[in-house]
Specification:
By secondary structure, the protein is an all-alpha fold. Helices cover about 70% and strands about 0% of the residues. Helix 6 packs across helix 8 and helix 7 packs across helix 9. The radius of gyration is 18 Å and the shape is globular.
Length: about 160
């Protein structure tokens, strides 16, 4: 029998990792998935499995996964998590996505997550939440790259 016919689908592999004790192997597996495979697999998992996945990997990996989800879905999944766990993930999400996700949440849930976040990260998120999502302020990011003047950049 050929190898492709016996290979598990990515979401089946992820389910197997969720039942195991090894989060490191799960993170490595997720890193090796293409963007399309990751999104397709996420939506084959139940909401509970998605929450378990986000809790099993590092906050940075979870943030990368959350950023791949539509904002409304990410908000729904994070709202169902304990606020302190969700806060670690939201802190690691890029500033533009952070504001979009928080704005999709019920105000009470968003406030609970913001309360659990580090003070500076929460303050930055609150600033961006003041803007409508379809305005320049709502689309902007607070992160930027800076290089000393004496450095040159080449292609």
């Amino acid at each position: 029998m050929n190898e492709i016919a016996t290979k598990n689908k990515p979401w089946e592999e992820i389910r197997g990792f969720l039942l195991s004790e090894s989060s490191g192997e799960l993170e490595t597996y997720l890193t090796d998935l293409s963007h399309t495979e990751l999104i397709r697999s996420l939506f084959r998992l139940s909401d509970e499995e998605q929450r378990t996945l986000l809790l099993k990997v590092s906050p940075d990996s979870a943030a990368g996964i959350v950023e791949e989800m539509p904002d409304t879905h990410a908000a729904e999944i994070l709202e169902e998590m304990p606020a302190d766990d969700a806060a670690h993930i939201v802190e690691a999400v890029g500033s533009d996505a952070k504001a979009d996700i928080l704005s999709e949440m019920d105000q009470q849930d968003a406030d609970a997550i913001l309360e659990e976040m580090e003070e500076e990260a929460a303050a930055d998120a609150r600033k961006l939440l003041k803007f409508e999502s379809d305005t320049a302020g709502g689309l902007m990011q607070t992160e930027f790259f800076a290089f000393p003047r004496k450095h040159t950049i080449r292609k």
